[in-house]
């Protein structure tokens, strides 16, 4: 079981990292903008699933085999960079399409894969999750329950932010400009990942 002090640090670190802009949050906001809160809220389930898989794999990997496979983090960063660049291009190209065009830019699979490759998962697994979470099954389930309890409302806030932009409540920002801006954020993030991977 997790101690009170480790739980407090875990909760604080998780909130800070989850609330930061990044590829998953950008996609959630863009989905809220395009499809509204009700249709996009389910994407938080895909986000949670992607993080659970990625954090679990990275957590067990880092605690077992990080010393012998030093090249793997670089490979993961490169794969993440390529996928996020693809998302950026796709979002840029669909920014001018009306929401009723029938082309859904962001679905469950897209968000799941983007979250699966999100480098935040490595940060969670390597530093924010207590080490005991990957050594004890009860501690693992406790940490994941806390993580899910924090992730769902934060993800919904990003969806609601995008929906508010789409409804005109934030009239000073054009939906097309937001999507193109989100595309630039994703593209910049992709380039920064590539830079870190090759340097």
TrEMBL record:
UniProt cross-references to InterPro entries, sorted A to Z: LeuE-type
GO MF annotations, alphabetized: amino acid transmembrane transporter activity
Transmembrane regions listed in the UniProt entry: 71-89, 110-137, 143-166, 178-198
GO BP of this protein: cysteine export across plasma membrane
Presence of the UniProt keyword Protein biosynthesis in the record: no
Localization terms from the record: Cell membrane
Keyword line: Cell membrane, Membrane, Transmembrane, Transmembrane helix
Membrane topology reported for the UniProt record: Multi-pass membrane protein
Any one of the GO CC terms: plasma membrane
Protein name: Multidrug transporter MatE
Taxonomic source organism: Caballeronia mineralivorans PML1(12)
Lineage: Bacteria, Pseudomonadati, Pseudomonadota, Betaproteobacteria, Burkholderiales
